[in-house]
Write the structure tokens for this entry.
Amino acid sequence: MDVDCALQHVGQGGKQQVKYLLVLCLFKMYSAFHTLQYSFVGRSSTFQCFTVNQTLANQCPGNMVSECTNLTFNEKTIVAEWALVCDRNWMGKITMSALMFGFLLGALVLGRIADKLGRKSTLMIVLWGLIIFNFLSSVTVDYTVYLISRFLVGFFVAGQAIIITVIVSELVGPAYRGVFGMAILVSYPLGITALAFTASFYRDWRELSQLVSLMGLPFLACHWYLVESPVWLLTQRRQHEAEAVLYAIARGNGVQENVV
């Protein structure tokens, strides 16, 4: 069975594929909440450094946090949580580097896992990973745990990015792959906009991070709504399941004839 030929009959980009696309676009928007969270939880904050003899604004004696007897911050960010100013400033930046390093490794590993376990199954694993480790980063009081959790969030975000692109291209016919792929790409900047809007109401970094984790829970229902890639099913010699997916798409598109 050739999937592209079958899609010519069931509809290359019909109503059912558009529904799947909308769900996957929401997934893509959600990934922006994880990737760019640092811009809000790690934003610069004014602070006061108290020493025995003086009070300094936004600076430390000799640029050393250890020279301050007390530090106070005006905003609740990871900078305030772990005093990531002056000589410790780099520790805030490295959390984003850890996320991107995780992204690199995730891109290398999770694509192969998706080839073995399936697109939908791996997408659900990735979603669980994002929810759990982002939530962990929001509740920990240990900087090292936070750093590791951000690395793992980056690891799973990479898998989400790859799998969404692949599954969209494998659910539609050749004539619609470009349009559907572009819709997925456009979803990411929409997610950035949604994150900025959401963050304007949550100035406490822990509250924002916890909200982002909770926002992932409704996506778990997609396990029962999304279908597996018929292309992947055929590579696993599961033709009957691939046919069932194509029939489901045909019904959703209003095609009643025998299409496979």
Summary: The first strand starts at residue 47 and ends at 50.
